[in-house]
Task: inverse folding
């Protein structure tokens, strides 16, 4: 009963103790992240190589689509690598005591920009073929 009361008091005061355990410390999660990294890298390379081949074939309008997908998967690969690096640094740092703050919405501008560029490129390539 006392443990529950102390836990509630810590939550009310806004203190959270993070122990030296990474979220990717479990072998299954680490394997899943590595598998995602391999898939994202393959998709990025496939998109960029296909864009290169399409440009060499003289169809630069279609290459924009593959370059957009290459950019999208490249951003996802970079974000995954950055997250894995941060977790490794956090796990090596040891226990950390953090203050709990109010949750707020944080827009992810790089993802929104990539999606917007991709949509514009796809619609542009479609309209380019219709007009042409």
Result:
């Amino acid at each position: 009963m006392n443990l529950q009361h102390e836990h509630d008091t810590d939550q009310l005061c806004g203190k959270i103790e993070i122990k030296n355990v990474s979220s990717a410390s479990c072998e299954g999660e680490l394997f899943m992240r590595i598998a995602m990294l391999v898939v994202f890298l393959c998709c990025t390379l496939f998109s960029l190589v296909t864009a290169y081949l399409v440009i060499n074939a003289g169809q630069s309008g279609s290459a924009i689509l593959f370059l957009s997908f290459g950019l999208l998967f490249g951003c996802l690969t970079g974000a995954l690598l950055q997250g894995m690096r941060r977790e490794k640094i956090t796990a090596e740092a040891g226990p950390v005591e953090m203050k709990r703050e109010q949750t707020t919405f944080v827009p992810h501008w790089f993802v929104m920009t990539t999606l917007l560029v991709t949509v514009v490129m796809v619609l542009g390539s479609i309209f380019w073929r219709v007009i042409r």
Helices lie at 2-13, 27-56, 60-93, 109-131. DSSP finds four helices and two strands in the chain.
